[in-house]
Amino acid sequence: MSKRSPLRLVATAVLAGAIAATAHALPGSAAPGARDHRWAGTTGEYATASQSSVPAPPRPAKLVPSERVVTTGQLKLRAADSWGSLLSSLRTVLTGLAAAKPATTTTAATKTSTGAGAPGSNPSTKTLVLYDSTGPYGWLGEDYGMMATNLVSHFGAWTAHPVGGYTAGELAKYSAVVYVGSTYDEPIPAAFLDDVLATSKPVVWMYDNIWQLTARSADFATKYGYTWKGFDVSSVARVNYKGTALTRDARNAGGIMDYAISDATKAVSVGEAVRADGTKFPWGVKSGNLTYLGEIPFSYITSNDRYLAFSDLLFDALAPQTAARHRALVRIEDVGPDADPAELRAIADYLSSRKVPFTVAVYSRYRDPKGVNNNGKAEDYTLRQRPLVVSALKYMQSKGGTLLMHGYTHQLDALNNPYDGVSANDFEFFRAHVDANDAVIYDGPVKNDSAANVTARVTAARAEFLMAGLNQPTIFEPPHYAASALDYKTINSLFGVRYDRGLYFPGVLSGGTVDNSVAHMVGQFFPYTVRDVYGSTVIPENIGNIEPEPFNQHPAVLPADLVANAKANLAVRDGVASFFYHPFLGTSYLKQTVEGIQGLGYTFVAASAMS
Ligand SMILES: [Zn+2]
C-alpha cells in the first residue's frame, strides 16, 4: 500500500487516560456523599461503580501503522514492502515497548469461555468474541472482551477467547464475530484474517490491527470501498449517531482511526466523530458484512455517550429484525427498617396513579454501630421490629412494587467503609475509603471475602424477610454496586438475577487467576438485559439517580438530567431508560422524572419484564 500522509500530532496528549491510574483519577467517578443518614441515600449506587470506568488503550505507537500481518512476533511483510518499511516496523515495536509502563508483563491465559444468552434471546444466535491478550495491557484486552461479551449475551449464547487462539474455520460455527483490537500489532493468526475476508457473516471489528486485515487482502479498498488512513488523535467530545448527539470523553487519547471512503455505494459511515473545531470524520464504517469502528467504545462510558451507538449497532449484526421499543424502569432505593413509612406510601400512591410498576431495594437490618445518628449510642434493629415499615412495604407491593434484596445491612461491621458504618451509607461486599481529596477510593474485596460470607449474609437477610412476613426476594442488588468476582459468582448461585451495574475483573473470562486489583477492574452498565460473565441475568440500571446537591466531586443531578439521559438512550432501538430514586426526596422530583421519561415515549415496566 502506498504511504499515507502523516496526521497532525498532538504533542500534549500523551497517554492521557491511557492507563488505569490515570483513569481512576478522572472526576465523575467516586461515590457517596452523605454525611448523615438522611442523605445516605445520596450514596448513589452507580456513582461508586463509575470509579471503575475502563480506561482507553494507550496512544498508538504510530498514528499511521505499518500495514502488515503480525504473526507470533514475526514481521511478515507483503512482497511490495521494502526494507525501509521493515525497519520502520521494528522501530514501531521498540517504541511501543519503550513507551509502555506496564504493571505486569504477563501473557493472559487462553481459556475459551462460553455462556448462555440472556432471557428472551434467540436460541439460535451464537457470537464469537475475540480479544487481544498480549503485551503489558493484556489485562485491558480481557476487560474489553468481557464488556463485549456481556453485551452480546443480550442476543444469544457466546464463546470468547483471545484472538491468538483462533483456529481456521472457527467462525463458521457462529452467527457473528466481534473482535476487540486493543493491542497495537497483536499477533493475529492469518486464519482469522482470511476467514474474516471470506465470510459473509457479520463481523464487528474495533480499533487496532485493521492494518493486518488490509495487508492480508489483495484488494481491500476495491472490495469494501474504503481503507483506513491513520489514527486521528484530535479531541473528540461528540459522536453523532442516527440523529442523536452522543458524548465522548475528550481526554481519551487513544485516537480514532480515520478512513478514506472511495466507494460510497459500498462503505457507509456509522456515526460521525466531531472534532473540537467542528469538523467531522466517520466514527465507524460499515461495508457489506464488515463493520469497523475506529475506536473501542468501552472506555470512560457514561449514560449518554457513544457506548450507546455500539449497543445499538449490535442489533444490526445479531438481531436485525428487532423493532423499536422503549421501556423504562424505576427502582426505589435504600429502603431499610429505618425508612419513613409515610414516604414509602406516598411514593407507591404516586407511581400507581401513573400505572408505573416499580422495584424496591430493601436491606433488612439497620446498623449504626457507632451511634453516628443516635448521640453516640449504637443502634441495631431489623424489619420485624418496625411493623409500620413492613406494612408500608406490603402496601408498596399492593401498588405494583417488587421487593429485591439490597444486601443485608448495607454496611460492614463497625468499619468506616467508606463513611461511618451506618446502613445505606457504606459498602457491604467491598472495601473503600475517602481520600484527602474527598473522593471515594475502592480498596478491593473484604477481609473475609468468601462464598461463605456472602451466603451467611444472604441467609440472614432471607430470615429477616421471612420473620417480617414478606416473600423471599428473587433479585439481588449489591450495595453500592460493588462486590468481588467471587461474590458475584456466589450471588449468581443464590439468585441468578441481579439488578445493578457490575464490576468485572481480568481472569474471569480468560480463566486465569482472577485479578482483584482495583486498578484493573471495570464497571459496566447495560442498556438492555444481559446475562453477564458471572452467569447472572442483569436487569439494567443505566441512567442514574437524582442527587439534589453535589457530593464527593459529583455535580448535582436533577430530573432534567435523567430525562436527557433517557432521550440519548432512544438511540438504542430496543433499550431501556432505567433509574433509581431515594424515597426521602419526596415525590416532586420523582414526578418530574417519570413524566419526563414517559413524554419521550417510554413505557414503564416491572423488573420481571426484563428477566
Ligand atoms: Zn444502596
TrEMBL record:
The keyword Signal applies. Residues 45-64 are annotated as: Disordered. Keywords: Signal. Coiled coil: none annotated. Residues 1-25 form the signal peptide. It comes from the Bacteria. This is Polysaccharide deacetylase family protein.
